[in-house]
Amino acid sequence: MINMEAQITDTTDIADTTDTKNKIHWADVIAESVMASGNVHTVATGITPSGHIHIGNMREVVTADAVYRALLDKGANANLIYIADTFDPLRKVYPFLDNSYEQYVGAPLSEIPCPCGECDSYADHFLKPFFASLKRLGINPTVHRADRLYKEGKYTEAIKTALIKRDEIAAILSEVSDRELPQGWSPFNPICSECKKINTAKVTGFDVNAETVDYSCSCGHSGTVSMAGGGKLTWRVDWPARWPILGITVEPFGKDHASAGGSYDTGKRIAREIYGCEPPHPIVYEWINLKGQGAMSSSTGVVVSIADMLEVVQPEVLRYLIIRSRPERHIEFDPGMPVVNLVDEYDHVEQEEGTEHRAYELSQTSTSAPTVVPFGHMVTSYQIAMGDMDLLMNVLERSGYDVSDKHAIMVRAENVGNWLEKYAPPFVKFKVQDKLPAQVANFSAEQKAALGILAETMEKDWTALDLHNEVYAVAERCGIKGNKLFQTVYQTILGAKSGPRVGYFLLTLDRKFVIGRFKEAAGN
Fold first, then answer.
1. CA 474 to CA 200: how far, in whole Å?
2. How far apart are the C-alpha atoms of 467 and 469, rounded to whole Å?
3. 438-522: what fold?
4. CATH architecture of structural domain 9-288
């Protein structure tokens, strides 16, 4: 079989995903802590849909869902919401955009045309596939789009309060973040009706009764906008303002927001002193790094999309990648060989106890089903069958696997096929040759003699391990090194010097084919 030694690198193992004193899974620890303050909770998650929503972004939403499920399991009256920050501005022309988007830099994402022309807006272009992926991951939050919340007037009272208490908010921001705000700073960013930008206009006045804001824009235009959709609160004010609006009591967020003087520190003060509410229970999470490239980011193009990975592994496995590790532990993600180990680990963890099994439970979706064929073995079998599903079933049966659940096998086979195409390292890939490879002509007399003996040996019934050891024995008998005979076997069947572990590999192939090929190579 393929060498499975490569591991998903993480700063912790499963045993460290617990409360070390009580051996409770981290999601249950958080749920217990949260329920100490009451039984009704709203768990919130969200992101700015400025680009492809990737595996790194998935950590926040899966973390939120795991805690939401833990709350439900403990009898809480809980709900899960997702806030799409669609009213945020486009920061720059990202590498995946053409230069025509230069004109939209600074405009709200909800007001920018869709890159493919098939969605309602730029924001929806990235949200649509993300929500489809969430559904497959078994995550079904109530979705709130920021632009609609503002346009529907949900933020209006919060905007009034922020404008009236502008000096108090400014003092909090300066004190907590230790930075001076620019002259004329306002907690509200109007959208200029002329240039359509949300980050270039300054507030010059406001009318609480009329619910309007006056502005002057750097483009030279001045005007008046409604508080209901004519602009938005700056991020450090918008975040605490939404907590009471949506009743948020629990929220995960990245470590950047949790730094000293960061947006959660200022948010706590603004929530309590300006909006008269308690901040949500914080769940700070670390980044998921792409092996060898660093933290994933749409703006830099360092991404593996959730949709792409769902073509390679089951949704439950992606959930497990997040849920098995405490949020504050970073994850080094490698879509190559470590994925094989991750899937096989997931397949076995159902039989574990304690927090390991709890991680498995919290990873399940409505369509979860066990797969009897290990991912690694499927990699070998799929390539032997060359993608032919009928032949694949025969190959698996020869290996002793139950193939009655054809749907589960087909799903895993499709995952493996996609993994081989997109992420598998070259040394894993092979192809059974239709004809005797040309390099067989260069075999020594000892190599040919060994193949002749193996042809006779293959008539017997072997276990994979015993056959593997028998190859060593035949090599010694013929006066050649074991590794040399392994290479000889691979060259005879694959036309290459390496391949899957010999014992498993030979037993997976059609026995008559193997015997015939060995005899042909031996000159018999």
1. 79
2. 5
3. Arc Repressor Mutant, subunit A (1.10.10)
4. 3-Layer(aba) Sandwich (3.40)
- Of 213, 164, 162, 211, the C-alpha closest to 192 is 213
Which one-letter DSSP state was computed for residue 427?
G
Confidence at residue 15, expressed as pLDDT on a 0 to 100 scale: 31
DSSP string, 197-208: -SSSEEEEEEET
277-331 pLDDT tens trace: 999 999 999 988 887 777 766 666 667 888 889 999 999 999 999 999 999 999 9
- Name the nearest CA neighbour of 290 among 259, 313, 321: 321
CA 29 – CA 22 distance, rounded (Å): 9
Task: Decide: 192 and 215 in contact? Cβ < 8 Å.
Answer: yes
Q: Which of 109, 225, 102 is nearest to 163 (CA)?
A: 225
Task: Single out the residue of 464, 521, 465, 455 nearest to residue 488, CA to CA.
Answer: 521
**Residue pointed to by tokens 């406001």:** 206
Nearest to 308 by CA among 101, 104, 58, 505: 58
Q: What values do phi and psi take at 224, rounded to 5?
A: -135, 135
pTM for the whole thing? 0.88
Read off the tokens for 464.
């994979």
385-394 pLDDT tens trace: 988 999 999 9
- The first and second tokens of residue 20, run together, are 């070390």
Strand segments, DSSP code E, in 210-287 are 212-217, 222-226, 231-233, 250-254, 281-285
Supply 124's token pair: 């929806």
φ, ψ dihedrals at 23, nearest 5°: 55, 50
Long-range interactions of 425-428: CB distance < 8 A, separation 24+: 425/336, 425/337, 427/498, 428/2, 428/337, 428/379
Query: Stretch 511-522: mean pLDDT, rounded?
Result: 95
Residues ≥6 apart with Cβ < 8 Å to 468: 501, 502, 503, 504
